[in-house]
User: Fold this.
Amino acid sequence: MSVPHRKDILDALDRWFQSHSEGPTLAELCAALGWPADRRGSLQRWLTALKGQDVEWEPRKRRSLRLVKPCQVSETTPKHEEMPWLVRDERLLALCATAVYDWLETSSTPRTDIVGNGPLATVSRARLPLSLRLALSTFDLALMVEGKRPLTLEEFLNLMSIPVSQWPVVPQLENLDPESVILESGSLTEFAEYWVLHHKGFLHEWQESIMLQVLETCREQRLYDAYRSYRQLLIEKPVMPVAVFQQLLVKPEFYPIKKQLRAMYVDVSLLDGEDEPGLCPRCGYLQKRLPSGLWICRSRECEQVCEQQKLLRRQTIGDPAEWVAISPGMHRYVTIPGLHELSLAQALTDMGLRVELWPEVDRYDLYVSFPSGERWALDVKNWDYLGRTTLSRWPVHRSPIASMTAVVFPDDRRHLHLDKVRSLLEPQLDGVRLYWSSEILRLAAERRMGHA
Ligand SMILES: [Zn+2]
Assistant:
């Protein structure tokens, strides 16, 4: 599973409760995560997103943070009421504040001219900051759901100057002052400053939060197949033509998560400034051009595989406005590790074993079932470093319903020196084993033949 912030937070809480009976304060949790103190706002937003699913928390009550154990989640989580997906929490507000902040930072339009008739009508969306383009397209989607027409840039900025409570889609937040506005007299308000996502990876955080929401929805509604199709799509089609994407959106399996899926894929023209975008022959994601003019994949691992397997052909895609893609962050954290998950699943399936990918909405990467009824739970990690800290930061818990739980490393990660560190690490893992993928395949073949 590759939603790093969620995992980091849950793991930090898990560690915290091993030595404390009361929950941490935001500052303590920030410190436990190794995050700088000024990321408390971001942490708070994450806890709000996780609330009800992974944590219990009363933001106004000191030390009220509690961890919800996974087995309790599906039984205790109430269903969310029907409302457009993006107003359920604070994401829309954070995106709008960031969009306006970026606009003020980069626009040459005098601040006082922002509201009113003027040159804005002629500004091309392609020239706007990424956050603003994303905010506009998010509003477009919400309005489309309600059968309304999209906003112009001027209308969007006008909207940012009126109270949040009067927006056409109102963020449903506890304790939100109905008079709060984002933009006042051409400047960002203090209220909005709190919500601005300052770091450059905010698109990744945005998409990661959508990923988290898909996880929540699929867990609540037990949409195992929808989740599996969705994960597989992010791995196998990180970039695709708009026409193909539109056909996917109407598939019944994607219906419950259609809006999140729509938000996960962004126009390639928003992501890629290249004149002739092209795709990596291994992973199918957008390549980048080096100053030397050479095109390479954003993944170093892909570059190594391409070189070894002599995969040289680059597929150019023509007009980027006709294509959609996930963000580079999702490519890195979902697509690339996912290639290993799919390849291991395929090799085990080819042996005649029954393989379930991301069972119980991502409890593990794979369940492997043998004809005898025995089951293994496997998690695949394409880490670049393996040590005590990595395994305690991203722990894999022993499955109560599997005869073996193992962390599997692709064979090309020889630099992890698994053979050396295994005997040191395994005794601390509560029975969880560490294997190369070739070892797992050999053991599975032996077990299937009844030799092990
Ligand atoms: Zn690649």
Remarks:
- Residues 364-448 form one domain.
- The radius of gyration is 23 Å.
- The chain is about 45% helix and 10% strand.
- The chain has four domains: 4-76, 85-195, 234-330, 364-448.
